[in-house]
Design brief:
By secondary structure, the protein is an all-beta fold. It contains no helices and ten strands. The strands form three sheets. Strands 5-4-1-10 form a four-stranded antiparallel β-sheet, with no helix packed on it. It is globular and about 35 Å long.
């Protein structure tokens, strides 16, 4: 993973491949992180806070953090969001675009990245999986 890049504090949408945005869905008590086309809702807005080379992303509508409560060194095919702050590192992606980033759990030692789930679910779920040239989506932060 390349060195961290500066993302300022603020409110952003998190744009992934295909122009889809990270979104917190409501499924009973659960809050899965899904990837949907832009819809203008607060579920697609994230408060970004940088701290010592890492970042937390808290959903504006729900207060849940982008991340999960399981072992940060274990892949997760679906992430449900966390009530606790979850720290991410940024790194340069394979296309070396300075405006897009790979996101890795800060506590992970296993080169895991935020990506799309390999499960065939609709809507598409976000996952934390090992880095691979086949599924290393880069994310961009668009200010609100």
């Amino acid at each position: 993973m390349a060195t961290d890049q500066l993302i300022s504090a603020g409110t952003f949408t998190l744009l992934g491949p295909g122009g889809h945005l990270a979104h917190v869905a409501h499924v009973g008590e659960r809050r899965p992180i899904v990837v949907l086309p832009p819809d203008g809702t607060r579920q697609q807005q994230w408060e970004v806070r940088p701290e010592s080379g890492t970042y937390t992303l808290r959903n504006v509508a729900t207060g849940y953090y982008l991340g999960h409560d399981d072992d940060p060194n274990e892949p997760a095919m679906r992430i449900m969001g966390s009530k606790q702050p979850y720290r991410w590192r940024t790194g340069q992606g394979p296309d070396e675009d300075p405006n897009t980033y790979l996101l890795s759990p800060d506590a992970s030692n296993d080169r895991l990245v935020l990506t799309h789930s390999l499960l065939r679910l609709y809507p598409l779920h976000a996952a934390i999986l090992p880095s691979s040239r086949y599924h290393d989506p880069e994310w961009s932060f668009r200010p609100i």
